[in-house]
Amino acid sequence: MSMRLRFALVSAGVFFVVAALALVAVYFVVQTSFQYRASVFTPDEIRVERDGYSLYSARYQDGYEIARGFALKTHLAYQTSVLSNLRTAGGVAVLAGTGLAFGIGWRTAGMVLRPLRNVTDTARRVAQSHNLSERIGYDGPQDEIKELTDVYDTMLGRLARSFDGQRRFVANASHELRTPLTINRTLVDVAVRRPDATEDVKRLGESLLLVNARHERLIDGLLALTEGEQAVLDRRPFDLADVAEHVLDQAAAEAAEREVTMHRLLDPAPTAGEAVLVERLVQNLVENAIRHNHAKGEVWVTTRRRADRVELVVANSGLQVPSYEIETIFEPFRRLHGDRLRSDRGSGLGLSIVRVITEAHDGTVTATPRDEGGLTISVELPVWSETS
C-alpha cells in the first residue's frame, strides 16, 4: 500500500469517525428533546376549566384527555418521521463526506509527495544505469524535502568521486602488474627455447611459466571482479543459450583433455544486459565444472525460460561437497576442500565474479550439492521481451 493511499485512507477514516460521532450525538439530542415534549401530553393529572374554576382531574376522566391523546399520537408520529429522516440523511451525508475526504486526501498527498517521486525516479535511473553524475537538483523551499534532496545529491557526489578514484586505481594497477608479468613470461619463454638450454632449465622454465600464468589469471580475476562491481551496464537483448553454446564450444578442448563429457540442453532464454560480462559468468561456471571434476566425469549445462526469468544451470560430477561450505564458496579466494595448491584449478575468484555479474544484472545465483558428488549452480536473470 503506497504512502499516498495510506494518507487518503487515514483522512477518510478520521472524517468518518468524527462525522459518525457527531451524527450519533445529534440523534440523541433530538431524541431526548422529543421525549421531553411528549411528557407534556402525558401528565398524571390534567387541568380542566369549568364554570370559571380550574380543576385538576385524573387522566382519562373527561373529554379533554381525548384531545390530548390525539395530540400525543401526532407528536409521536412526527418524532418517528424526524428521527428516521435524520438517520437516513445523516448516514448518506457521512458516507458522502467520507468519500470527499478520501479524494481531498488523495490529491493533497499527491501534491506533497510529488517532489519525492522526482527523487525516486532519479534514484531509479542511477541504480539502473550506474550513472553517478546525475543529480536531483530540486529547486524548492527550504523544507524537509529540500534537505533530503540536498543530502542525496551530496551522497551521489561523494560516491562518484570514490568510484572514479577506484577506476583510476584499477587501471593503473592493471598496467603496473601486467607489464612485469608479460616481461617475465617473454624472458622465460626465450630462455626455455634456447638451443643450449638444459633439461633442468626447461623444467624450471615450465614451472615458472605455470606460476606466471597463475598470477596473470589472478590479476585478470581481480580486475573482472572490480569491473563487475562497477559495471555501467549497456542493457542490450541477447539469448543466453547462444552465449552458453559459444562458451561450451571454446571449452570442448579442455574438457576432452581432462576426459570430461559435456551435455548441453540449450533452450531459448532471452535476456538483456552486458553480453561480454555474461559470457565471463558462463565461462567461469563451465571452467569450474570441468576443473573441479574427476577423470571421465560429466558436466550438464541447461538454459531455459521460466515465466519472467531465464535460468542457466551448470551441474558437474566430482567430490562430495559438504552443505556447510555452500555458503562460503561465492566469497573471494575460497576453494572447496581446502585446495590452495592446485594452480590449474584457478585462483578462487571464479564464483565471486559470477555472483557480482549476476547481481549487476538484477539476477540471483544459488548452489546446491549433488547427492552423487559435485555441485549444481543455478543463475536466474530477468527475461527480455519486446515490451521490456
From TrEMBL:
Keywords attached to this entry: Kinase, Membrane, Phosphoprotein, Transferase, Transmembrane, Transmembrane helix, Two-component regulatory system
Enzyme class: transferase
CDD domains reported in the protein's UniProt record: HAMP, HisKA
Transmembrane segment boundaries: 7-30
Domain HAMP, residue spans: 110-164
SMART domains from the UniProt entry: HAMP, HATPase_c, HisKA
Example GO molecular function: kinase activity
Catalytic activity reported: ATP + protein L-histidine = ADP + protein N-phospho-L-histidine
Domain Histidine kinase, chain residue ranges per copy: 172-385
UniProt subcellular location: Cell membrane
Main localisation: membrane
UniProt key word NAD: no
Superkingdom of origin: Bacteria
Name under which the protein is recorded: histidine kinase
